[in-house]
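Submission sheet (multi-component)
Chains listed below:
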Amino acid sequence: MSIDRVRQAALREKVMTADEAVQFIQNGMMLAVTGFTGAGYPKAMPTAIANKAKDAHAKGEKFSVGMVTGASTAPECDGVLAEAKALHFRSPFQSDPTLRNGINAGEIAYQDMHLSHVEQQMRQGFYGKFDVAIVEATAITENGELIFAMGIGHGVEAVKNADKVIVEINAALSAGLEGMHDIYGDVGLPPHRKPIPVVGAFDRIGTAGLAIDPDKIVAIVFTNAGDRNSKFAEPDDISKRIAAQVIDFLDHEVKAGRLPKSLLPLQSGVGNVANAVMAGLLDAPFDDLTGYTEVLQDGMLDLILAKKMKTASATALSFSPDALARFNENIEFLKDKIILRPMEISNNPEVIRRLGVIGMNSMIEADIYGNVNSTHVMGTRMMNGIGGSGDFTRNGFFSIYVSPSTAKGGAISAIVPMVSHHDHTEHDVMFIVTEQGMADLRGKSPKERAKLIIDNCSHPDYRDMLRDYYDRAFVASQKSGGVHTPHLLLEALSWHQRFVETGDMRIK
Amino acid sequence: MSIDRVRQAALREKVMTADEAVQFIQNGMMLAVTGFTGAGYPKAMPTAIANKAKDAHAKGEKFSVGMVTGASTAPECDGVLAEAKALHFRSPFQSDPTLRNGINAGEIAYQDMHLSHVEQQMRQGFYGKFDVAIVEATAITENGELIFAMGIGHGVEAVKNADKVIVEINAALSAGLEGMHDIYGDVGLPPHRKPIPVVGAFDRIGTAGLAIDPDKIVAIVFTNAGDRNSKFAEPDDISKRIAAQVIDFLDHEVKAGRLPKSLLPLQSGVGNVANAVMAGLLDAPFDDLTGYTEVLQDGMLDLILAKKMKTASATALSFSPDALARFNENIEFLKDKIILRPMEISNNPEVIRRLGVIGMNSMIEADIYGNVNSTHVMGTRMMNGIGGSGDFTRNGFFSIYVSPSTAKGGAISAIVPMVSHHDHTEHDVMFIVTEQGMADLRGKSPKERAKLIIDNCSHPDYRDMLRDYYDRAFVASQKSGGVHTPHLLLEALSWHQRFVETGDMRIK
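Outcome: structure written.
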């Protein structure tokens, strides 16, 4: 029974439907809503808010809200709200097609920010008070503690900073999640901060639940539907070749004595290629791996189940349907091997730097000097956002970017003269890997990097074009006084323009 | 007597001239050389190495070395070595005109990297062993501890990782420097790292000197000349207006309850504008300020002497001749108010994030979306390097970028459609300030930022050009499918190209 999950009896009188709870949401409000990479987002309230917006719009009234989440949610949250034109502001990350279209049409103001900055800015009061927090939970304990769902994200700060809290209790969640969360709410603000006491990637530093002022809870809504659960593609040949490159490199660093045989804690970005690298680690010559990541996906789960990985820390669990079943079946085995933290801890610069995390993320494109674009298609169109990639890239021990060398059947090169948007600069990016090969950029000047990236990473279809660009840029930059980083300023972004105009970066 | 500064008698037999000590430097070696923003660099050895290189070149022999410093040095170090064509690799930062020309001619491979990454990569062994460390020191104590000079930079790691050490003892340095350094050598490598115990900006966590294996010391060379000591320009009207903007903003944050009245620890980049902001703080309504910075310059020194600033932490002291005299005169007063740390601590992401440092750095240019270029002139020519600006920008509580709105008598706009090189991205930069005004970019989407930056920060001569660019970019990006960040891909860098061709970004 869902009601059994509200173990503090006094709170049971706050149970209502989403359509009733929507009374607390008014036009112009700022909402803090849980959700991180398709996990832990509310399943019912967004539709109720979307319907309220549609009703208002039908009457010619204004209705929209601002919404700050942990990261991306799902069609039943971002999707329905964007479709109802119920959002005027959205931060810090999204991946929903309908919301994306609203952003790219210029209808929704979207602040694409580092995830590690979110809770600090909420706490500091920069956004002002949040009117309502909507949080997904597994249960509320006897003493009124909130047990979060498959993701925590910014949930702690959402509850603390909102005037009112609406809790969605999701009966589809395994009750076994209780005990997996590690709620640490003491990061505070400067000048009163202490070291965050995570010294090993699996250190438990907090409590299982979040103590919450019961008076703040204005509604409890029951739901019974799983997280968005898209299936991963089976690793294709290209993903497998990328994974093999990464594993070869890590093995090389182990043999050179620069990495322990258990490597260092691994962060893995989302998506099929990252998942393929995790799958590749199943057969790699490393043992006792650890994870310190934002999102734990199928690949890392299988490493734990195969006992190749000892423990993993994340802020959200984002599984395919099959992996979710494996997770639920093995939850007792996994309980002391997976820890879920607030994203302020999972993405914290202090902890990432101390642990020496190996950050591995996918990219849209890299340029010949090692700058990376994670966010914009052809320079102007937002894809998803930077998410936590910058947190791990900037402060990790290694920063690895992976991508197939081409996209759209070869019409797009992932290696370009200049990236059309810069999210990670030449100073931050250490390794670029495609199915063609790997470029180790450490200790290299821009011109040395260009040679490596073109020779090792670019697709043969584009290699001569890149060399031609570089050679002409070198001559032109000599004339204009500096060849530290050769460029042709009017041609640097011409490949993207050609794609916009002809549908192909190649010259026909 | 210089010899008295070598207090461990057994070491005195290693005293020799630089021309004798240069026997330990061979072609192809990798050197770790102290020096940070014109402080703490060796005064004699570089010239001896340069002469050895010239002699070799005159005989038709090859001679060059790689050199990793803390940051920039001075003409007597980078300058003489570059002039003698004695460098083939240089990292992580420089500001010498002769060296810069060698880099921009493509003769010297220069890796421009975040200063917080340097010691970690040295320790990890990525560069291999360093053959020789050349370090400037104030003294060697009775028990063989090295007392560093006006700057530490990467000196601890230089000594630890080099096979041989040459110490330059500089008799021109105040003996009173002893006790000001705080040598902490326990950062280590993952997975064995502990929290760095700096909780307050002035916490002392180490020792005054660095214990050094006496067998490693192959030569002690005496010098008696001060650091490069360029004079600061008196703050001009534009710098004063920039300073006033920054101070107004900080005051506003204090009044809004988002900053304490003593602010948070201040980091200030180098240069006249940054120095003007420090000068402006002398009369600002804040008390008990603290500094947590890389380079302590005249402005911060005067804040301490005026008792507006309680304490300051830095890795180097870089003073004009007048300020150096004030420093030396007041060294007893200053001893418990200034602390010098290894740059791995001064620039450490963990500490900067915990303390909530207010980072304030100058820039070459910003674009209408808030990306900042700190390093390249017109996209291809290296100026100095990123230095520590990224360390403070990325992990600080506030990141502020300051610049006059134009340069070269108005021919260059510091606000452009797209920066010609990206060092700090839209995700990292929170505030842009020119003498025209300030843009607070927090919580803003790109299009909101563009309006703010153009309206508040750009020079009136360029404002209509920027609006025209933005308006046309919006229309074009609508056609190409995304107006999250409007751009005209073939025109984005055309202002820079126009300057290269005509000497003016304005259309004649």
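Remark: The mean pLDDT of chain A is 96.
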